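User: Show me sequence and structure for the first protein, then do the same for the second.

Assistant: Starting with the first protein.
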Amino acid sequence: MNTRFLETFLWAARLSSFSAAAERLHTTQASVSNRIAALERELGVTLFTRDVRCVNLTQAGRLALQHAEKIVNLTGEFRQMVSSREALRGTVRIGAADTIVYAWLPLLIRRMNEHYPGVSLDLTIDTSLKISQRIQNGEVDLGFIMGPVMAPGIYSAALCTFESCWVGATDLPLPESGLTIEDIAHFPLLTFSTGSQPHQALRSMLDAHGLSDSRIYNSNSLSIMTRLVAAGVGVGALPRVLVEDIIRAGEARILDISPAVPSLTFHSVYQDRGDNAVARAIADMATEIVAESVNEWMVGAA
């Protein structure tokens, strides 16, 4: 029996709401509904009566609640015991998108070294799409990527949201403010790799303004994108954290362009199994770091 399903059942029962339980667990209402339905199928009973505004426990649900609380409490104690710095050993395979590297990943790794000296790190930096696939294939234990990842057996929780911006070289011949996307359509537009969420959002924005013929330059190396921006190759549609260095160096500036570039939300993603205590512990550590490190380029914890 999946203990995460039991935890979901507990929160739904306590809050009398699937949507409130989803908010508390940092997931979607559909995910909560699916977990409860799976638990009901496994137990062969109906746990809740459902209406538009709330959910209520059935007689079987009230009986199950007593036992579920005991199981979840014991599971929590067990996780705490095996997740101590003395107990965690081995290698954790972490995959992260470039944006996380520029933000708080070094702080996470430094804290890992302090708290889990018995854990070695195998780090992969790649696109969110590729890391998502590697997590599902069992090749990566924990990912910090643009999500969510909606796949069977995968836990995906919103972690942080980064402000994005239009950015161009300081000497790019554009006014300081009052620009529209039509004003920059003749420049190459620099963004994430083809097929990524930011690329798709930019393409949709251009299509909506009748600018389907505009050039988009893509790369899975965002450090290359920032250098191309600084060199005046085109206008970037990038997370602000990626371009802070070239802005401080006077090589680039934020451009006031309408519409704005959408913010990007990143998730902690791992296989929802009972034998991945290291991934769970480090995901929890990342959540703590995000709460501590919100600043001018991060919209906030998601």
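Switching to the second protein now.
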Amino acid sequence: MSVLQSLVSFALVSALLVIMPGVDTALVIRNTVARGRLHGFITGVGVGVGAVIWGAAIAVGIGALLEASETAYTVFRIVGAAYMVWLGIGLWRSARAIGAGQEKDTELEPESASLWRSFGRGMLNNLANPKVGVFYGATIPQFIPSGASPAFMGTALAAVNAVEAIIWYGLISLGAHGLRTWMKRRTVRRNVDATAGTVMIAFGIVMAVES
């Protein structure tokens, strides 16, 4: 298998991971509705950067450690679950504030600061999910051609997945932005935050209790 064949084959497999609805999708939609199309796109870029970091981590053996050590995986899983629940609670508080007419006008936040926040949340959302690391750890080694550098290929394969994620979440943010006039209604925004918060809390709880 050549390097190009490896990249193309992995792209087909990793695309399934990208398009599956999950916490990243919920966060992209929420940030698009709350702050605009650019914030939704930047959130997706953050998810993609998180994927590249995971790929680099796999290249240096962290993914293998998560697969081999139950203790390491458990610790990482609990930390990730706590972050998901914390983020979900924050969204629920936002939903309550919107319902009470006490929400902060996020459009008046400094553009650079709020963009970095959207980027950081997208990246942390990806990094906090150990299943991404396990997925990479299980698949990346199978797509490293004989004689190729594992470090280079691990990062390159993750970069392919990152590009797919950025394109996919960019499309999602475009779609959500097209409905933004309707979605900016108080009731709709409250429901979006409540739904996104529920998804993240549920995902965090499942992550925490699963074996």
